[in-house]
Amino acid sequence: MDGVCVTAGVDGRAPGPAAVRARLGTALAAAFGAASRFGGRPVHEAASEPADEAAAHGVHLLLPGGADSAAVLPRLLREVRAALDEANRGRGPGVRLRLALARGLVLPPGIAGHAVAECLRLLDSEAVGAAADGAPATDLTVVASDSFFQSVVVGGLLEHRPEDYRPVRLGRGALSVAWLHAPGRGAAAASGPSRPPAGELAARAGLLLGRGEYRQAILDLEEALRLLPGADGPDAEESLLRLGDCHRRLGDVEAAAQTWTFLLARRPLCAAACQRLGRLELERNHTHRALVYLTEGLRLVRARPEPSAKAARLTCALLLDLSCVRSALGDLAVADAFLNEAAEADPRSVLPLVSLAFRAARRRDLQTARRLLGTALIRVSGEDRKDFLREVCTGAASWEGGDVIIKVLQENGLDPTPSPWTTHAPRPPPA
User: Fold this and answer.
1) Rounded to whole angstroms, how far apart are CA atoms 371 and 408?
2) Which InterPro entries match (predicted)?
3) Which of 72, 212, 232, 299 is deepest in the core (most CB within 10 A)?
4) Same domain assignment for residues 216 and 131
5) Span 170-229, pLDDT tens digits
6) What CA–CA distance (Å, rounded) separates 77 from 406?
7) 315 and 393 both lie in a single domain
8) Three-state DSSP class for 215?
């Protein structure tokens, strides 16, 4: 069942005296118990533990999804604020409290669901603690999961303005993002009047990506994503694709995989994400996993045929990668069929010619390999030759027939030395 989890726990860096924690734990249990009349249930980490330990370990409130449950949250947050003020009033060192809000799967009593796990992760997150230290001084830190922020806060179901939240990245790539409530220091306030809009940042990142300035492109893309209202739109899709490309070209395969997986979870009809993940799994020698991604990507493209050059290039890339997969699995007839389809899908693409050239090289047919690669080079403009060489030469020296390809490129006066980033993860040979 989809629902909401609210978890309160004492910040371990400022736990305060045990007596204060005990009073706070009792008050939190009462507030959460009162809120449970909307169909939720309050849960302690252990029913028999003292109130001060319950406050330290976390007290949860699980609410079913729906507007009725969301309506109780503003009052609950006010009661938590009042309970903390009362516990800390005039008693020396106070307690700092973290309040985590998450939306997700809520399971029956005794079984931890996704929402509870997400809240606990937010309470224990070092990134959240560091971000809270940089926010205005407060004894209450409120942090929301990305799904809670997008559906509840942005949806106007909480007495908080979305612009009063600031994003906190919990891991590499864009897979894990939380939102810290920091009035006056949120996303809108942090942007300032001189910050470029998201579209301008994304466009600049595209130019940086083309020039090989991947680290600066990452900074621009991450900033553009922070300025966008959510990760479900087409603008975010293109930025996330490029962000993964940057990580991939820097050799950070895990960050690239996280970014594209995050995108696919938000945009399940994104065939380009399927193609990139399939290619990545092929490079990792996870052939069957690659087959799943690539087959789904091809299905998505064919379900929505678009007469555009971009769609033709994507279809060609999917078919070429599927040809590689089938060749690796020993299905040579199917691999040939995919290769022929790729050539028909994008007649202007040089990649089918490259694949055929590698096949000739494996047969030690130097004349055919020279003719096919020569034709491919004629079609490639000077500006695109760097990318072409990277596509052809990465790992070529270790492949059967790769020495023939390198010889042909050298005959054409080209340096087949791959760029530094490619040495992290050599690509598989073309089909």
Assistant:
1) 9
2) TPR-like_helical_dom_sf (IPR011990), TPR_rpt (IPR019734)
3) 72
4) no
5) 765 444 678 888 765 444 444 433 456 778 888 888 888 888 888 888 888 887 887 776
6) 66
7) no
8) helix
Task: Tell me how many domains the chain contains.
Answer: 4
Four-point Cα dihedral 380, 381, 386, 392, nearest 10: 0
Please give the DSSP secondary-structure letter assigned to residue 149: I
Residues 6 or more apart from 430 whose CB is under 8 A from it? 320, 324, 351, 354, 355, 358
Same domain, 19 and 129: yes
Question: What local confidence, expressed as pLDDT, does residue 194 receive?
Answer: 44
Burial 201-226 (b: 16+ CB within 10 A, else e): bbebbbebbeeeebeebbebbbbbbb
> 17: Cβ–Cβ under 8 A, 6 or more apart, which residues?
91, 92, 93
Q: Is 222 in the same domain as 143?
A: no
Q: Report the chain's terminal Cα–Cα distance, integer Å.
A: 46
Residue 364 structural domain:
350-431
CATH number for position 241: 1.25.40.10
The pLDDT tens digits for 250-278 are 888 888 898 899 889 888 999 999 999 99
Q: How far apart are CA 174 and CA 120, in angstroms?
A: 20
- Evaluate whether 139 touches 185 at the Cβ level (below 8 Å): no
Q: Residue 392 in contact with residue 409, Cβ under 8 Å?
A: yes
Q: Which of 259, 264, 176 is nearest to 218 (CA)?
A: 259
CA dist 232 and 221 (Å) reads: 15
Three-state SS at 199: helix
pLDDT in the model for residue 85: 81
Domain boundary among 166, 190, 214: 190
Which CATH number is 76's domain given?
A: 3.30.70.1230
Identify the CA nearest to 224 among candidates 249, 129, 150, 233. Answer: 233
